Structure formats: structure tokens, C-alpha cells
Structure prediction request, 303 residues.
Amino acid sequence: MKRLPYIRKICIALTAGIIFVTSASFSMAATREQVFAEKVLLIDEHGREIELEQTGALKTAAEAGEEVEQTGASQPETEAGEEAGQDKGPEEAAPVMICDEESGELAGADFEGDWSLILINREHPIPKDYEFELATIREDVKSDVRVVQAINDLLQAAHADGVRLFICSPYRDMEKQEMLFERKMNSYIEDGYSEKKAYDLAAETIAVPGTSEHQVGLAFDLVVEDHQMLDKEYALTDGGMWLKEHGPEYGFILRYPEGKESITGIEFEPWHYRYVGKKAAMQIAELGLCLEEYDEMIGLTDY
Prediction:
């Protein structure tokens, strides 16, 4: 059985205080523009509820990309890996299907109801019809608006336990993902690897553009002040240990666990946490699964 699709350095400090949000809808395929008002309920460090209301617009992927942080890097003339004869991923994602547990029939996945379990990897790139509201947490720190409350709760809980977490990498647009991938690939080429080998090695540490969870605003790289390096040793820090133990309580899973590299296709990343919802996160942690295994277990499959 194939593994399932969808149903499937300067770090920016976010303290456990109020996280301010503005929102703008983001669509991988939208061609219309629509004004909306979105209410977001947040909790400050004193436990008080705050309701914020902002306006935004539904935009195409290209339009939304113009509003995110500017990296200063020029757009490469060709995509990373192109000269090496490598595809950066299928041009069009296969239809996302879900299997009904009772009838066994396959039907199109309901993104509105199942968005938190979408599977994104090299075999399952971001569907072109996937939509989400992009929220600005603070300055250039952005995410899917639906996970703002969860990340706010997680940061506050960690702070209450004496662990000050920092968001090092939140939402990224396609341009930023391409820049990171190309930079990593070029570093291997400079070390003497062929372009093809450099591409393959880069893909083990940086998701191929179009296949990154950061691009849909559901993933965060989280570090602590005394250890901001994204390395395996982070797992032994107070932040790494706290996240592994308590992350699932707030709906977040260690997305690329040690020992699952052959399944996820990505090396162990103790700093990378992905929102999947509390119920799924607790089950995944209890069973010791990665998201690919969990989606398969609950009946989500390729067709």
C-alpha cells in the first residue's frame, strides 16, 4: 500500500505574552479576490481573553507571496536541481482522496474538516486547490490562522514551566523555500558533489519547494535562547525535551522523528513541530508513529 497523501540565522523571539494577529487568506489556486473580516480569540499572559478583528483578502499564491518577508535573494533563473535533471516535484498534485471506513468507497477529501492532517512530502506536494488564511503573528512571523491559538497556548505553557521557546522559522512562501533549497544544494556542490548528488543530499535536510509544511503555515522550527543551532543536540536541551513531552498536549508533533528517516525522507529534526490537532497528536506520540504512518493507519490512502 502506498503511504498516504493528505488525509494528508536570527531567530525571532515570541514571548508568552499576547500574540497579535492580522490575517489574509491564501489560496494555492484562487483567482478571485474577496474581502472578509476574521475574528481571532487569543489569551494573554494573565489568562484574559482578547478578541481581535482584522480585514484581509483572498489572494492567489503569487499575490500572497508579494506580501511576505523579503529575503533579499534574487529569484534563480532556473529552479534548484533543474540542471541536474531533477524534478522539484510533480507539476500537479494527484487528487486527494479519503477512504470511508464503513463503505470502503473513495471520495475527495474534505479540506475544511481535515486540514490539520494533510500529508505534505515529496510524494504528496501541496495540492493546488488547498486554501488557508495566512495570519501575521508579529512582523514577519506568519502561520495558518487556525493554529495561532494553539501555538500561543504552547508558548505560554512552556514559559510557565520555565522554558522560553523562540520561533525560528514559521510560514515560508515559495520564493523563500526555493532560496533555502538552492543555497543548501550549492553548499554541497562547493564541497565537490555532482549536481545530482547535491540535489539528493539537499532534499534530505531542506524540503523540495512545493513539498514543505512551512509553506502552508502548519509547521514551526522552535529553539531556545542558549541553543539556536538546528542540530540533533537540540533534542537534549530543555526546549527539545519539553516539546517532545508536552507538544502533543497542544496538538503539535515532532514531525521528523529519529528512526523514521526512511519513511519521512527527512533526517531527524528535533526542532521541527507540526500542528495536527490534539487528538491525533496524542495518538501519534503514544504509538510512536510519524504522520505518514498515522495517516495510513486511520485509512487515508493514495488512489
Summary: Residues 241 and 274 are 16 Å apart (CA to CA). The chain has a mean pLDDT of 74.
